[in-house]
Write the structure tokens for this entry.
Amino acid sequence: MTTKPLLEARDVTKRFGAVDALRGASFQIFPGEVVALMGDNGAGKSTLIKTICGVYAPDSGEILFEGRPIGGWHPKAVQALGIETVYQDLALAPDLDTPANLFLGRERLKGGLLGALGVLDKSSMRAEASRVLTDLSVKIKDVNAPVNNLSGGQQQSVAVARAVTWADKLVIMDEPTAALGVPQTQAVLALIERVRESGRSVILISHSLPDVMQVADRIEVLRLGRRVAQLVTTETTEEQIVGAMTGAWTQEVAA
Ligand SMILES: Nc1ncnc2c1ncn2[C@@H]1O[C@H](COP(=O)(O)OP(=O)(O)OP(=O)(O)O)[C@@H](O)[C@H]1O
Ligand SMILES: [Mg+2]
């Protein structure tokens, strides 16, 4: 590909005590691409995306966004670049309701004096929240209940809706369909396709080969903290992907 990567991680290392979570991991995604990041449990996928998102500072290596290094390692600074993340542990505020979670940190204020006094425009936030959730085919009986009271799958959909609503350039989803039923999973996959159609990129972490084969343009495989394969979905078999994850099949790539 001749265009510049939207985001690139180069030779990133991250150690937690005695555990080498990332041992020189690299990753690339281009504008408008859906790239699946795959690998066995413990391969370092979540650690890599948390490093990209500024949750962790890497011990070494660099991460470039639109050709410029992401420095500072602060999640807010990364969000300001147009990157939103659905973390594996969701990071919702359990005591707040669905609209409040969707607008967490970006609350809409009423116009005029009330807004100047910090009064929230709850009805507009509720309307927007229900529009996004309808798009996702999520049925939440009471959007005013704390998200703690929602099922695991519903909470996952709220986190996906929030990320897609706010991301200008890149959505990162760490196992977004793990708790979802078949129709909800298909709704998330359809949403991922809509994000791509809007010119934005998606990094999808998933253990589901059928889901990945359905939506990903490319697949990058991590094994033991390093990239071991960069694959084009239409030119790849499920056996090769599994082989790359387990170490039974190797591809020459720039690690
Ligand atoms: N905060 C942490 N403290 C200590 N060790 C950690 C921490 N986060 C991750 N690790 C370790 O780093 C390694 C990589 O973990 P990571 O969560 O990145 O894997 P993963 O590929 O996302 O796995 P999964 O598919 O199970 O989600 C594991 O050995 C894990 O135990
Ligand atoms: Mg993980």
